[in-house]
Amino acid sequence: MQQGRKTGFILLAVALLAALAWGFWPTPVLVEVAEVVQAPMSVTVEEEGQTRVKDRFVISAPVAGFLQRIQLEVGDAVDQGETLATMEPLRSEVLDPRSRALAEAQVAAARAALKGAREQAEAARAETEFARAEYARKKKLQADALISEGALDEAETRARQASAEQRSADFAVEVARFDLEAARTALQYSISGNGAAASETVTLRAPVASRVLNIHHKSEGVVTTGEDLLEIGDPAALEVAVDVLSADAVRIQPGSLVKFYRWGGDKPLDGSVRTIEPTGFTKISALGVEEQRVWVIADLASPREEWQQLGDGYRVEAHFILWQDENVLQVPASALFRYADGWAVFAVAGGRARLTSVSTGHNNGLTAQITAGLSAGDVVITHPDDRIEDGVRVKLK
Predict the structure, then answer these.
(1) Which pTM value belongs to this model?
(2) 200 neighbors 89 (Cβ within 8 angstroms)
């Protein structure tokens, strides 16, 4: 009996020690892992942009006038030389009672002035006839040596002066007649004649075959010189304008490949960079931060049939490809962390984390190129925290 009790106590002590050992034994850390793979990889700059017509023509009013209603609609096709808009001379002003009375008084004054000019012309004509007759008489007397040569010259001068005064009086009659006509015109032509067809019009024609993109002034009305009336362009000749950060713009080169996503189609469109504008501008971001940005202009390289529904001012998401390779050894960028003067990862081997120094290449923010330290098929821990150390036991989530 004593031997049995001793054996029981020994077994109980062993059980307690085993329980204590089990309780204090370090448990594996739950981790998320990813496999090192050999796959295609690219480094891109992603920004939103919008489409726009390459050659845009703004039709404006060449002179001030009255624009007839534009019959075209946005999207209509126009041929080269086709009439886009027609302008008439400015309409006459309406005459209120006071203005009409003033105009009638001006007509009466002009009529009286014409009569006075005609009377003065008659007086000048009579003076001219007398001066000519006097000159003819003195010319005969001088031929008979009855008067001096100076008296004849004086008569001739007087005749010429009278002729000039007669012509001046005749011109004054013409001026008075035109003044009367102007006064009658101001009274005769008013807003009451709006419905009449204009005798002179200005026709604005399409410079090229295109489509109507925008109409700024559709209804009839008065327009000023240089006022925009409508815009035309060829929507089949589109380009994409994207504003990117200046730090990213210096890495983009003319001819770089571009992929356009989220434009509404089933698959991305191909494109190429045509130009990077040399002048930047300041833009306030959604967070209120001032950013220096640069316009990058790209052409669509995909066939027209694939993006024929795109129009002017449509939104696209542009991915500028700075570098790409079809066979790159890579890991998730979240597995990397700074170690010493370089980079390192925690590789998983034998159920334990192993600190591994690596050399990296390109990094696109999601994945990083590995040039040394790992091989395809290795498993690394993503998002390692401060519980992960070299040699610690790990367990996959």
Answers:
(1) 0.65
(2) yes
